């Protein structure tokens, strides 16, 4: 993707009001790409719209990207248009008749800027980049892709390996996905390992060839046993070429390839090899028969359907490979996110930017402007390196597939709305029970975990509108608390560091949105400590402690003075219980992760001059730390690489400890 600094982009930030208008704002540059706008708060809504309308009428009749700001200067919406003046002017027209979501966005626009582009495809690329960079409130967008699972194949190794990973890196491996869930990836990996008889152990080849007897999987015919040395690197790579083709969706190509290999082996009287290919074909055929056949055998398509509602919307994607529906994925969007036709190309461009593979054809179950269709097609074709056909079918089986995708989108949106309403009712009940002034849409929960005085860790989890937002989770390694563990001091340190982000935002996005409620894994002591910190910092955020029973389960919430029994409201009790379990799980896992990292390092490496290699030599020679502790200078010097000076350091270390 081209940089914003590339000469092909012509930045044109309109900052001055039109002639005759009063100076309503000034801009202060805080960085190369950030601006803070100070808006005249006395400006009426009518004056604001008039100012923006006049400013929009000065825009050029060229393609580009427009960027909407709220009164704080924050980017709340990014869009593109082939004719900037016409599109942006529509937002501020006196009789625009916007949909509710668009009307909400327009009511919050205090100013806008724009960037000219040479073409619509260029504008689409830039729009996608800006949406991903700024995550505007009103744009539909994908979740952070770090949680999506991929299948990774180390194609450049002598003996390739296949595994599930959560992050793509530029390591020369091939990545397939992202997939809709870890369960979907696990099912695929199990099928691949059984069908292609590849190794599922932790051994690394060729390093471990011949070192151990073949395992049980080789004995029952579920592994070709590269550990025996009977399978060459080229033979193993050939297996992975078929696996790669299958993951790309070319099931028919894989079947034909295996058929040819089976026939070739049979003609050369290699009946054992022919039987292996036959069994592989049967296994893949059974897998294929389980899929729902919805198109021609050679069909390779993604079918995209949309449902748009006032309170929620949904995009559904059906993945069709070899004529069969092999998977589906659904993306739900809340009441604020605008799903207009102009937003769809940006969403789809980001969607396929995250994916290794783009099918030959995309079927859209909704209308799309001709120019938007053309720019999306050009973008996808460029990324795929081949022609991609994007079309809107009007009749036949393709049209029925699109209708089915749209129906699924509607059903998923309604289910999402039902769950959201249920969560909202729970939050309303929680607010009522705790006497909160507002419904707590954003809740942050904290816990402390440690092993003695080591690795004291505070975990923070976030819930928004009843859903865990894992990308906002954070860990605080406690630095100031030394000696005996002190949960109160540790909690105070963690909260101070988190709340500082509210008082002094860094622009990173972390912590700048204050929570509506803070939950602490602790009782009155924890609450009193944090309330004292709040008073010190001049903040007023409701704080509650999750009081546990003898079984370590939350039985009540406390504000530091009184306990509020939540057991009488089952939905509230279950909701708080889930939060307590999640913050405890997250904090303990992060603390244990820190502990495990140190356990991988020998204590001998704390000795001056002793690194990992020499520590390994010492342990290999003496077999235990006790033997090293009791060794004489002469015995230590017998170890390769241990000089008299290092031996003195070792003796001094153990004498001190």
Helix content estimate: 40-55%
Shape: globular
Count of alpha/pi helices? 19
Tell me, rounded to a whole number, the average pLDDT.
Answer: 83
Examine the coordinates and then state which fold CATH places here, giving the name of the CATH topology of the largest domain: Nucleotidyltransferase, domain 5
The CATH homologous superfamily of the largest domain corresponds to UvrC, RNAse H endonuclease domain
Oligomeric state: single chain
CATH architecture annotation name of the largest domain = 2-Layer Sandwich
Question: Could you tell me the radius of gyration in angstroms?
Answer: 31 Å
Characterize the largest beta sheet: strand count, sense, and whether it forms a barrel. 8 strands, mixed
